[in-house]
Fold this sequence. Notes:
By secondary structure, this protein is an alpha/beta fold. Helix content is about 35%, strand content about 20%. The chain has two domains: about 270 residues, Rossmann fold (3-Layer(aba) Sandwich); about 70 residues, no CATH class.
Amino acid sequence: MRYNGVKGLPVDMIHTSHSIILKSSEAMSEITAESVDVVVTSPPYPMIEMWDELFAGRDDQIASALRDNDGNLAFRLMHEQMYPVWGELYRVLKNGGIACINIGDATRTVDGVFRLYPNHSYILNYCLDLGFSNLTNIIWRKQTNAPNKFMGSGMLPAGAYVTLEHEYILIFRKGTKREFKTASEKFNRQQSAFFWEERNVWHSDVWDVKGTPQNMLDKSCRNRSGAFPFEIAYRLINMFSTKGDMVLDPFLGVGTTILASMASCRSSIGYEINPGLYKTISSVVNENAIDSLNEYLRNRLIKHISFVKERLLKEGKNALKHTNSNYGFPVVTSQETKLFINYLASIQKRSDLEFEVSYLTDAALDHRPSLFMSLMGSEK
Ligand SMILES: C[S@@+](CC[C@H](N)C(=O)[O-])C[C@H]1O[C@@H](n2cnc3c(N)ncnc32)[C@H](O)[C@@H]1O
């Protein structure tokens, strides 16, 4: 089976397809060159102990470097194991396509020496060498209140270490800026817009996303698998692609990127090397996800309506000059006037590893304008 990114932009587009491929993403022969619009992913983190077994199991040299307490060698070899994947991303992305790579650095004591292993810089440098351009990266702040978060010599200089409370989302572009040339591409781009107030948060370079509560995945499962929050994948997909695009996650884990793609009206492909994760993936990515995904989409609209109400209250009737033509509610800029969030109509399982999602394409069908009217009216 070969996959091509969805071309152009189908005003009447109502389906997306989602595939899980249980093999290593070092060679993604199922994907043709220049067919993917956006990559959203998070690899196993070198020198974080939970991933030692995976790296060492695939390279004896890593196993012996860890046994010999040779942290530098283990660190380098773990990164080398992922080089082919980064090379594959460069091959499969279209010109103008974006790769978002979530990675955290590692702190670890090896042979009595405590230090930081800067994973983000290793990946950053390698991707620059491949020819990617780096765009502004995002710092994902994961503040912890754990009592033991300060390490080292306490209040005494000079051996007290700064607490590591952030990860990175590295953002790369292949080639030149994406262009939207035809009328249908332009229209689809306008429908794929996000709200002004979302832009102000999503496009800032520090994110404070907590392990957002999500019905789709319980917390212990997320901790065990290293899954990122749904919110992270959803934002990145919506920031860097348009509806109908093809999303790729070469390190799928439990399938968060596929779920976020389904919610975003994008198609997706995910590679996972560990077939043992299939059971967890299918407990997350399945027909029953539809309600929580629609709930998430509905919340976006409700949040916008709250924003509108607050703004009108603070700044008066003329504060919002534009009206969204699909919902009838006010928006801040003309870029949001065609914004449309497609609710999911169905998720169908085509095989154990393939899903097709269809969407509602008409606002009138799901009563969202009246949702707005009733919310606006409810606090009169
Ligand atoms: C940090 S987890 C990804 C979590 C994912 N973002 C989520 O939300 O569930 C990394 C995943 O990559 C998988 N993996 C590691 N090396 C791989 C490879 N070469 N090809 C495909 N998957 C790989 C691991 O088994 C693990 O499930």
